[in-house]
Amino acid sequence: MLRLDGLSLAMGDQDLLHDAHWHLRPGVRAGLIGRNGTGKSTLLRAIIGQVQPEAGRILLRGDARLGYLPQQAVSGSTLSVWDESRSQMAWLHTLEQDYARALKAAEEGEAGGAERLGQVSEQMRLRGAFSAEERIGSVLSGLGFASEDWTRSCAELSGGWQMRVALARLLLSEPNLLLLDEPTNHLDIRARSWLAQSLADWPGTMLIVSHDRHLLDTVCTEVVEVRNRTLTSFSGNLSAWLAERQRRQDALLAAKDRQDQEVAKLERFVERFGAKANKASQAQSKQKALNRIDRIELPEHEGRPRLRLPEPPAGALEPVSLRNVTLAWPDGEPVLRGVDLTLERGMRLAVLGPNGAGKSTLVSALAGTLAPVEGQRRLGKDVRISRYAQDLAQELPADKTALEVVEEQVPMSPVARMRAALGALGLRGESQLRPVGQLSGGEKARVVLAAFACRAANLLFLDEPTNHLDAITVEVLADALAAFEGTIVLVTHDRFLVERVATHVAHVGDGRVELHAGVLPSDFLPAQGRTGTDGAALERTVEVGEGLGDWEQRKQRSRDAERARKRLIKVHQEIEAGERRLGELDEKLVQQAADHKAVAALARERATVEGEIAGLYAEWERLEEG
Predict the structure, then answer these.
(1) How far is CA 598 from the centre of its chain?
(2) Over the chain (626 residues), what is each successive 10-residue block's mean pLDDT?
(3) How far is it, in rounded angstroms, from Cα 577 to Cα 429?
(4) DSSP character at residue 274
(5) What is the dihedral of CA 184, 188, 193, 196, to 10 degrees?
(6) DSSP character for 592?
(7) In sequence order, which residues have a C-beta less than 8 Å from that of residue 158 and are 6 or more positions away?
């Protein structure tokens, strides 16, 4: 379907690909991955002819019908959402025109008119023309359009919703080679889940650039990585490829280590015995063996960096709770009513719901930036809050470097931790020393996220943290959040992040908040999809997310630690009381030295108290160590 033959691409003075070869076979759904800036979008633009290669060829099969979705696609139409979405269904338009002509001929009694009408009707039935409206409605609903929006003019829609129209139009045009550049941009979590399943069922060939891990795992049958200006392909989805790539890297490093040891051994022999007459021939033999070794060269190693959040400071077992609260913005109608929600230490809460349902309202109330109209918000003792939101990137000083910004925001954090956080989030080397004014919007967001990751807190609020992150960096962030021992409140459209991190899910909609433990497949369906036909909750036969079991363990550890802390205080008090009693006994022994019976009784009591104190000190040591 598509072949790259010795392809070289450049953007300005930056080489993106050099002598790359790759073949996309019919029916394959390939995910194109790589760090931001490696040329993924440029390659898609080269395939459709918008960018000219420096060298090599791009070969398309003769019957290829390309469908391309750029990152910022807007419909640019004044038609209704419905009409614009079906505007490129060329096969349907052709059949409809054929049917209209055949119907007119039959009505006018033309010879063969009725027969022709029957033939066209059969063609329409076989092609699915009579169910086309159902298909259009299914696509629009899947992408989040309510039925009442189908008749709205596209000109009335925001850029994000126009992007959805462009995606619907592309899917309904039924190309046999789809090129998608970040198709989940502007989609909420349920639309993303629908799109992933829809593309997984797609019968054609596709090449997808996306940072959405769930999409890449669900859809892709092949992964192509842009790395070190070349393309490496693997049969399987993204998770399988990352595991295989790590295995290959580990094997290469192990082979390099063994070779280095062998080379060092030979070099020591040559250096030690090369000048000795009785060993000269052996030394020459070892030197020849050294010369024959084909040295293993490690490629430029991007590695898989690790992001470590600071240990959360000690704080309350229940950092924040809302008790029967009603929430509304100033001078506005209530958005949420009757909210009862308690955040516990170690809880990682994903807040899900359609845009405009009140997710930001709930999070603002939990964070303390929106006071309840009714009810009560309770803040636990020693709670330290840290917040990440994309809009904070707009407030960064343009003249300071990325590293200076992080140093300014987190002055007590070690510089090594700051650099490691920036690097783990994709800002490496010289990028950390560039002025913020020269960074892209996505890079600025990473600077804010790096500062957030260096700030010690026990209650974290994150709003869409994976925007602008590639799929590999999303996994780095997910691992860091999943390892955090404090409390997290997460608003995201990234299903992979929810499934990897969350211990609990809060659904916001229809003025209410519904909370449950674990992560279920039904969490990513519309509200009506989470209940049966009788309104009862779907049977939860699926295994809950791994985060729940981890949370239960951490919760038990927290309880054990709290009990140990309280016992430690009690032991300390008992030791002090015992030592005071020893002092009293010693005084009595001096005072009653002449009374042998009294001295004997006091000595026995003193020995008992000393034994108790020794036991308390032993318990103290166990508690301190544990």
Answers:
(1) 75
(2) 90 87 93 85 90 90 88 75 88 86 83 83 86 89 88 85 88 90 86 89 91 90 90 89 84 88 84 66 80 79 72 89 92 90 91 86 91 92 88 80 89 87 83 84 83 91 85 85 91 90 90 88 70 38 48 66 79 86 86 83 87 85 73
(3) 59
(4) T
(5) -10
(6) T
(7) none
